[in-house]
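Q: I'm writing a short methods note and want an example of a predicted protein-small molecule complex. Could you take the sequence and the SMILES for zinc ion and return the bound structure as tokens? Please keep the output block clean; save any remarks for afterwards.
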Amino acid sequence: MATTSKKAAPGAAAKTPRRAATKAAPKAATKPVPKAAANAAPDDETGQEGAASEASATEAIYLSLLYAIMEHRLLAGTKLVEERLCEVTGASRARIRQVFARLAHEKLVTLVPNRGAFVSSPSVDEAREVFQARRVVEPALAAELAQRATPAKVRSLRRHAMEEDNARARGDRAAMIRLSGEFHILLAEMAGNAILEKLIREMVSLTCLIITLYDRPGAPACAEHEHRQLIDAIEQRDAARASALMAEHLEHIEGSLDLSMPDSGAPDFYSIFSKG
Ligand SMILES: [Zn+2]
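A: Understood, no commentary inside the block.
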């Protein structure tokens, strides 16, 4: 799957200052969409080619929103204004709704009846559940990959770690967030289990949103050396060590978040938007 790593989301490990989106009324998204969607086919295409380009146009809009959420350009609680997205992308309402439905299925967007679509605000309990699930799945995947490691896979992982370093060196926070999440997705892809890969993709995206909500101010950024240690263990085909390192890495990410706050901090969409 050559395109899969493009979809990847960021963030498992990146850090940003705590955002205030849950405290203030979220503002409507005004320019969420993206370069990818700019090339999207118009909605009136027909025929087989039309169907194919329609699908890829839908995918482009989906990816643009996914990236914006992952890179913290769209914050938790932000309203996604359907009309505005239609304008910016040239897509029909039906297509935009299709994208919202997909993002809602992945729990990144919350659809509120008669109010619209909002970037989700995972609760503290949901955040804990995501990390609990990641701790169950990812150490096992890392061990699995260590057993199947090939020089080509290790090279590809090292190339990815290098990209993370480059983003860090040039201070490109958005890319750092995305790449750190993509590292986990790349491991899952390489382990060769499509179902777990899909699961991890979704959990990494959710982790990104969780980080925007619960990041502890001043917490250190995700240690890039932990990705390198993992790659070393995989290269050495040391499954037990790869598994232990991944478990520790996930504990560090969760430990850098402040999950002690009560859930009442989550925005109440009904009251915020009750006036329209
Ligand atoms: Zn990581």
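A: Remarks, as requested: Residues 164 and 176 are 6 Å apart (CA to CA). The beta strands are 79-80, 109-112, 116-119.
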